[in-house]
Sequence to fold (77 residues):
Amino acid sequence: MKTVKISLSSIDKVKSFVNDINRFDCDFDLVSGRYIIDAKSIMGIFSLDLSKPITLNIHADKDLEEIMQILTPYIVS
Fold:
């Protein structure tokens, strides 16, 4: 599992993020406080506080390099 912090500060960013990760056949979880939601669920994402960075857990063994490249626009340090 790989963990990164991401920012989804606009509706367009949320839509493109969900489209990008749905290409992969692995699980992605978003963690905000005590809530953990499926990152492939656009409705779930909108139930979170998007005003601050969110933790993304990537449950992938293969394609990790490609996933990280696609997630580059969303990752914050």
Q: What stands out?
A: The first helix runs from residue 11 to 21. Residues 20 and 65 are 14 Å apart (CA to CA).
